[in-house]
Amino acid sequence: MYKRRRALGAYLGALLAAVLLPGIRPIDDNVAWAAFLPGLVFLIVNQLISSYPSSIRTAPPVMLLILGAVGIVQDTLIWLLVSWVGAQMGSGLDVDGFLAALLGGVVVRLTVLTLMALGPQPSPEAA
Fold first, then answer.
1. Phi-psi region for residue 97, left (φ > 0), alpha (ψ -120 to 50) or beta?
2. Residue 18 near residue 34 (C-beta atoms within 8 A)
3. For the whole model, what pTM was predicted?
4. What angle do CA 34, 86, 97 make, to 5 degrees?
5. What are the helix (H) ranges across 26-97?
6. pLDDT tens readout for residues 52-103
7. How far apart are CA 98 and CA 117, in angstroms?
8. Measured between alpha carbons, how far is 56 from 64 in angstroms, rounded to an integer?
9. Which residues is 25 bridged to in the sheet?
């Protein structure tokens, strides 16, 4: 359940950033595919490279800050990767630069951490 919330948070965060931020926009008119591509990339990369605490509510604040900063950098690089892949394919999202990617990374990371904090937390022996 915890991994599902993390995956859902990554996908919803990517969609939210694509809708809210002016520096992230679709390359072509196919909005459905443009929204699907970043969500898919975020799902894959966030499952491969996990920089989340095992339990959000009991993690020390310093650990949350460090993992949050590392996660924002990771998500920023993923946004730049999404923009590059979209440009190569001629479809997807265009990210205007590093600042737009950074803001997108912040939106994605905050969405993931919020969804992870909601609901029951994993037991220590299951983590």
1. left
2. yes
3. 0.82
4. 100
5. 31-48, 61-89
6. 666 666 778 888 788 888 888 988 998 998 889 888 888 788 899 999 999 9
7. 28
8. 8
9. 94
Query: 48: closest CA among 25, 74, 27?
Result: 74
CA neighbours closer than 13 Å in the CB half-sphere of residue 100: 19
In the numeric block, the tokens 């912040």 are attached to 106
Cα 36-15-53 angle, rounded to 5 deg: 105
Q: Residue 111 to residues 7, 27, 125: CA-CA distances in angstroms?
A: 11, 24, 26
CB under 8 Å to 120, separation ≥6 — which residues?
1
SS3 (DSSP) at 113: helix
Under 8 Å between Cβ of 90 and 34: no
CA distance 68 to 21: 20
Q: Which of these, 68, 67, 66, 95, lies nearest to 79 by C-alpha position? A: 95
Helix (H) or strand (E) holding 26: strand 24-26
Question: Which of 93, 92, 115 shows the shortest CA–CA distance to 104?
Answer: 93
